[in-house]
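Write out this protein's structure.
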Amino acid sequence: MSRRTPALIAAAVLLPLALTACSTPEGDEPTGNKAAAKSDGFPYTVTNCGVTTTYKAPPKRVVTMNQHVTEIMLELGLTKSLVGTAYLDDKVLPKYAKDYASVPVIAKEYPSYEQVLASNPDFVYGGYSSAFTAGDGRGREAFKKAGIETRLNTESCAKADTPMETLYEEIREVGRTFGVTDRAEAWIKQAKADNAATAKKLKDLKALPVFVYDSGDKTAFTAGGKGIGNELITRAGGTNIFADLDKSFGDASWENVVARKPEAIVIYDYGATTVAQKKKRLLDDPALKDVPAIKNKRFAVMPLSDAVLGVRVPAAVEKLAAQLHPAATTS
């Protein structure tokens, strides 16, 4: 997995915290890169995670690093702009499979700086702060010196404690950058409607205490109170028992897991360790035998790519709600 060692989490937390975007007024609907540059408010200036960029026209040759930003590009109909991609956490959604197959995969995990340059991009879009690790030669400044603009998914640097709004702004800014504002706004409108529909189903239900098990043996690597993962649990009718962790992900002691008595456990599904293996590790731990979720074998499962700032989130809220509150969501 790409970004979730404690060191990388710390790096994400310490990134410059800047999300404010400014742009020139929008014009007519775009009909292609040339038309977009003339009619959709270009030049467009945006500040992304401390880096301010002015685009005179939409980028034309894009490399994406990390699955959720690749899926944002595909959802916005920007497949033809992609000249390379790297690093899946799991399978892309079936709706994107055909388009994804048309994009060259330049590395299984993170590509080297030289591998990125070989694709001759004018824009690199990273999903996690680790995509732009300066020590690996992929810092945003290095790309800038090579004449390549960059964007980092804003979950890595969001200041406001409103992750769903951060998601909407991420989609909106990417749409503006590529001159497809209409597609971005249509997605946001539908996402808000989907979230409202799920909230209506859960309106009168008591929130269920939830523990997220990502990984870990000596300690539990779990979802903290920052980031979209925590909000996803809340919107799905749960309460994250480690919402007091002041970061998106962090380590928690097993003693605290026991003390906080979760009634359901959400397992993140990714990588070489299977869901079955994770369940076995939890069920076989004698220290956890009195935890309500363990006693009742109450588990929910989420693909890792559902729990990060990307286009899967509204559907992921609904899917998790169906696992935590099946009676309410099927009625």
